[in-house]
Amino acid sequence: MHKLSNNISLFNNLALCISVAASATLCLGVHAVQPPGSGHEQTDITWQMGPRPSLRVVSGNLVYEEQLLDGGLRTRFWSPNGLIKPDADLESGSPDGELPSLDEPIACSFGLSVDGQELWDGWKWKSAQKVPCNRAGCRHVVVELESTIRPIRVRVHTETDGHPFLKRWLEIINDGSRAAAIGAVYPMSGYLFQATRLRENLPAGDRGLFTILRPASFEPQREDDFRWVTLPEGDYRYGNSKYGMPFTVVRNQVTGESFLIDFGWSGSYAFQFYNERKLRTDSASLYFRVGLDGPGPYRVLLPNEAVSTPSVYVGHVFEDLDGAVQDLHQYLRSSVLPPLPDQRLPPVEVNSWGFVGQNISEESLRSVIDTAADIGAELFTIDAGWYGNTGSPWWELAGDWTTGSRLAHGLEPIFDYARKKGL
Is-contact 322 159, C-beta < 8 A? Predict the structure, then answer.
């Protein structure tokens, strides 16, 4: 059964929630499952100290928990239906235990390499604290870890606001007396979910336990072309720069759960997955990581210097593709994208591509601006192809944001002319 009943749900051992009316829920447990978008989504981030310090995120029906184990920050479990899993079910000795067992860098909650040395373990939990958030209903917690291997600290930022999503980014601090080169960084990684009793739950010969929705092409103007791909056993990796959105949907074919993972980075990126098949227990577990890609170092930190990584946005839902994407759109519009000013509608826009395509020049853009002003437009956008020299393949130059002979005097005269026309 992929979805909980609307009438009765079990929480954390014997805790029970029962719907007693159309708009009321009686709860004897941790929290009540709320339908997405109900306006009553619970959000909280808590932590617990002890031999295994841990962090728990509750946001709507999403529950995520991680712990510091053997020197590495590692996922304990995810839940898309509000269930907080009992500790007994997460112990390695439990016959149906879900505690992730992979002992590799991808199994940790983030990845980092400094001066050529991987720092996926050897961390010490220093502190955890709530910090102010810039919007209503938001929770923001920072866990500070200190490396016992190198003079590096990492502040792990987690933010959520009641949608079934969390936002995660890292702040990396060089506490040493010498410069430190960041050679690899994965702001979020770790265990996603497992599939059990595979012979029972999958058709004979079907090995498609986990599938991902990924870009089918990295060619220009095909950014919205996605395809489902079945993950093979072992490693699977893809990524790009310039074209191809750093976004994926990961689906568990046995349980019906889906993850939506969005990486807030416009440069070269990489998604990596590890499908761990366990023949002895007739099960499989899936791990992932997402981060920057390309030759390092990405940044050299001076002594006492800090840098923040791009953010990763992760949602966990029990929805079909349409429902999952609508959840993502609602989250992005309300929690990620800058809000419009009060009483403002999106501006009426004219885009240069619809008039001149890649035949951009100062003269052609001025002509488009005149047309935009005549029809009462409010915003003028210069599309791709403004960079580089006349006749150069603009699609190959994306990322080299300098004007050439196409616009010999740069963009400023065009901007000035648009503003003069009231745009």
Answer: no
Alpha helices by DSSP H, listed for 168-320, are: 198-201
Neighbours of 230 (CB within 10 A): 14
Q: Which residues are within 8 A (CB) of 25 and not within 5 positions of it... i.e. 6 or more apart?
A: 17, 18, 19, 32
Q: What is the pLDDT of residue 336?
A: 92
pTM: 0.81
Q: Which two tokens stand for residue 253?
A: 């074919």
**What digits encode the pLDDT tens for the residues 147-187?**
999 999 999 999 999 999 999 999 999 999 999 999 999 99
Nearest one of 13, 109, 131, 137 to 53, comparing CA atoms: 109
| Of 105, 112, 359, 156, residue with least CA distance to 367 | 359
In terms of phi and psi (left: phi > 0; alpha: psi -120 to 50; beta: otherwise), the region of 371 is: alpha
- Rounded to 10°, the helix 412-420/362-374 angle is 20
Q: C-alpha angle with apex 67: 298 to 336, nearest 5 degrees?
A: 55
Of 180, 186, 185, 187, the closest CA to residue 304 belongs to 180
Give the separation between CA 380 and CA 370, rounded to whole angstroms: 10
pLDDT digits 0-9 by tens, 53-62: 999 999 999 9
Amino acid at residue number 61: N
CA 150 to chain CA centroid, nearest Å? 28
The counts of H helices and E strands in the chain are 6, 27
How far CA 192 is from CA of 9, 97, 109, in Å, comes to: 23, 15, 11
